[in-house]
Amino acid sequence: MANIVVTGSASGIGAATRRLLETPGTTVTGIDLHGAEITADLSSAAGREEACRRTRQSCSAGLDALVLSAGLGPVSGPPEQIVRVNYFGAISMMDSLRELLAAGRNPAAVALCSNSATIVPGIPEEFIAAMLAGDEDDAVKQAATLGGSLAYAGSKLALGRALRRRAPEWAATGICLNGVAPGATDTPLLQAGLADPETGPLIRDFPIPTGGFGKPEQVAAVIAFLLSEDARFCCGSIFFVDGGTDALLRPNSF
């Protein structure tokens, strides 16, 4: 019986991933604010600790896969909350559950990044540095002055860098650590952005070469691949699932 944990499992990409991974012989444990086996608020240290404690209880024999999908969008809450959930919530779960993953069978972890990390201009390096240094107070303070869009893109950029820094060491212990960077995907977070009078027009005008928004199931399929045996040679990779937006805007950044 394989044990898989998915944060942000109640909606969007997390819910689509959960549905795809729920197969015979697999137990999927969801973590979310509601509608999940483990109810926890990953914006707080106490909530993260509770989520990890209950995960260890339910997966005492080892954790085979971890999907870090919980997150807030640019208009989903205060910039401070975006950083607390998107970066510190994800990193705390990732690091705290590493030992449990190491005890799993062919373990793998996937974090949800974003193509906004590479295409949104003006993300301050000092903001990224604070997150990578683990200084939550400073990062949150800076986020309050940046606004939702920069806080969101910055949190995802820092998450991608943190993931890549950890991946080689994790691989040495048998854990495959990778990420996906979705573009505009039809989720409740995107719908909230579309409804916003400022961000809505920007989202609609953003170029997507393949045409139209992505589907959560399309991102979930890439996540499932990264958790599979076929992806054991992937280490610290971040797969763009964005309809070609990143390639269009940054064709020479490779």
CATH class: Alpha Beta
CATH architecture: 3-Layer(aba) Sandwich
Number of strands: 7
Mean pLDDT: 96
Summing up helix and strand content along with how strands pair, one would put the structural category as: alpha/beta
Low-confidence runs: none
Shape: globular
The number of helical elements comes to 12
CATH superfamily: NAD(P)-binding Rossmann-like Domain
Question: How are the SSEs placed, and which strands pair?
Answer:
Blueprint: E1 2-7, H1 12-21, E2 26-32, E3 38-39, H2 45-58, E4 65-68, H3 79-96, H4 98-102, E5 108-112, H5 116-119, H6 125-132, H7 136-146, H8 148-172, E6 176-182, H9 188-195, H10 199-205, H11 216-226, E7 238-241, H12 245-249
Parallel strand pairs: 1-2, 1-4, 2-3, 4-5, 5-6, 6-7
What are the salient characteristics of this protein?
254 residues; alpha/beta; Rossmann fold; seven-stranded parallel β-sheet; 12 helices; 7 strands
Question: What does this entry look like structurally?
Answer:
The chain starts with a strand and ends in a 5-residue tail after the last helix. Helix 1 links the parallel strand 1 (2-7) and strand 2. Helix 1 packs across helix 11, helix 6 (125-132) packs antiparallel against helix 7 (136-146) and helix 9 packs across helix 10 (199-205). With 254 residues, the chain is α/β, with parallel strands linked by helices. The protein has helices at residues 12-21, 45-58, 79-96, 98-102, 116-119, 125-132, 136-146, 148-172, 188-195, 199-205, 216-226, 245-249; strands at 2-7, 26-32, 38-39, 65-68, 108-112, 176-182, 238-241. It has a single domain (2-240), classed as NAD(P)-binding Rossmann-like Domain (Rossmann fold). The chain has a seven-stranded parallel β-sheet with strand order 3-2-1-4-5-6-7, sandwiched between helices. The mean pLDDT is 96.
